User: Fold these one by one.
Assistant:
Number 1:
Amino acid sequence: MEINKFEEVFEGKLAKNEMVEPKDWMPENYRKHLIRQISQHAHSEIIGMLPEGNWITRAPSLRSKVVLLAKVQDEGGHGLYLYTAAETLGISRDELLDNLHTGRAKYSSIFNYPTLTWADIGAVGWLVDGAAIMNQVMLQRTSYGPYARAMVRICKEESFHQRQGFEIMTRLAFGTEDQKAMAQDALNRWWFPTMMMFGPPDAESPNSENAMKWRIKRETNDQLRQRFVDQTVPQVQYLGLTVPDENLKWNEAKKGYDFSEPNWAEFKNVISGNGPCNKERLAARNKAHNDGAWVREAAQAFAKKRNEIYVAA
Ligand code: BYC
């Protein structure tokens, strides 16, 4: 088939809302775009284990410890589904991880902020997982099959995570005055960093045009950010807390809230490697990878031996 015939088939699939699968022809830039986005997403999942993992030993009850442990394990699983989806695009796991460990690949800005109190674990589950779901629901219909299918399971698990966070916030917000103050303090520190998770404003988002054209993204950064604010403000009100934004105001004409832009200079600083915890996160990830070398070697030795036995039999 001539190259423009291949392109026609690819465009036809997108037009009919069909999934592109690993063995289908795809433009090189589509493949690269997906490797970038899926791998950044995978990195975010496993780096996201670190700020929450910090609290497993300090969770205030056995129940909350078990729930947090399950959540952190889920994030590891999400990383695995996503790395596997990225590998179907012809890149190895080693290369993907190397890009993360050497700081060449990005991961979500949000995980470069510290979790200072137990209320932060509530805020992360409620706001960060809430924002993640807002973004990921549309990704269940993204155009690349393995990514879309991974997102279905991830979204189910993220919903449980969001509930876990909201439960912690509810207990604190309806608890003692000190507990309520702790919940408010966590909300104050996580609100704007969470808004940054959706990416820069549409007018300054270099990847959005192709992402929308190829149906990788179904909604833009600004659309999702607006929906997140509209959905979350009533939850803040229910908790009796205050959104730390004096410009937050219901706009009847647009049937949504007006709100302040996050500090985009801070965002740029964080994604350039200079956020409060970037260095700590990369050091912890590199250490975990190096400490786990013997597990990978043992698994490979086992697989090799098993193959030899099968071949001999
Ligand atoms: N952090 O052109 P744009 C989670 C980068 S966590 C860091 O708009 P795009 C979880 C962007 O990569 C959530 N970098 O990009 C929850 C680009 O740089 P490059 C992870 C960011 O890709 C709890 C540049 O800025 N979710 O799930 O069209 C526990 C310009 O941006 C960020 C996903 O990854 C950011 N917040 O849109 C554990 C969802 N925002 O690559 C885990 C999938 C932007 O050109 N990803 N940048 O050098 C997406 O939907 C999109 O990639 C984004 C960005 C909306 C994030």
Number 2:
Amino acid sequence: MAPQKAIAEQFAKKFGINPRVYRAPGRVNLMGEHTDYNEGFVMPSAIGFYCWVAIAGREDRRLEVFSQEFPAGREVDLADSAIQASRSWSDYPVGVAVQLEKAGFRLRGANLLIHGEVPMGAGLSSSASIEVATALALAEESGHAIDREQLALICQRAENDFVGMRSGIMDQFISLHGRAGHALMLDCRTLEFALVSIPESVKLVICNTGVKHQLAGSEYNRRREECEEAVRSLKKALPEIRALRDVSLEQLERNRGLVADVPYKRALHIVTENARVLDSVEALRRDDLQRFGENMAVSHRSLRDLFEVSCYELDLMVELANQREGVYGARMTGGGFGGATINLVDARRAEVFAESMSKAYQEKTGIAAQAYVCDPVDGGSRVE
Ligand code: GLA
């Protein structure tokens, strides 16, 4: 049964009323990792795994959220100005409601039933997909037409201020702005973006390592601090800079002595990664898949050696990919410390590649890993 039908039926059974259904996709990032919170460039695509939200309004101002994946639901009173995070899955939808209200969008009460398809812990933005699907549902059911840029920023605030993860804007933005057949080149400072068409001759293949190391959250926030430290140090010579986005490779090298070793390595990754995004966009525009693939390889090494967010399983996955035919490039994608790799693969070989990757990875690690052949999809919306 189609997921929207299944969730609508379950909702009707539970609440005795027919809901409306919304969905928002996860994403994979093709180039530009950890650059978003440095006000730089990223290049994600939305992928055909969705979070589904069935919703119906209520007469009071209570919000009840349930998930098909987790047993415990949560009920909050929207009039309560002191709603707290509960360290559970429900912090995502509840955090979105809190931030919508804080932004001045008064919400009506509602019942929500949520189903997440985006693999969790795979670095494919299951959290952004639940935030965005909830935000679309709550906004429209309360009669607010909020533009997508603002909605993305509200969802990011839910993650930053309510959940407590200092993530950038990439995931929420692409979940709202994705376009079938395209990647988005996003300037995370101005939020200007351009669509870049993905040639039909290639597929995006995602290989999930099946591991998510414990340190992911704390190390993520630490990387942000290290980047901020690099900016503070460089400001002594370059007072005009605001973020690593503003620093050229030449400026970084000239002022190498001002920056401590670790922040320097982080900065070197960011500065070169930003340049790789710009170069990769051009490469894709002229169908130069070879060049794009080379950039992916360099990006992975930079994330591994300079930004230090890779791990054994991700490195292995990339190595296995590089031994196979029809692969233009492979790199880790998302925050790191586990999760998935993104592989740019000749469309004719994609299925065989995916299958042989899962097999080879399982032989080496004993972990049953999934590989998905993906096409970019449109951003979130209501589903008829
Ligand atoms: C996570 C964050 C994003 C981004 C990536 C790394 O997915 O949510 O904002 O920083 O990591 O590129």
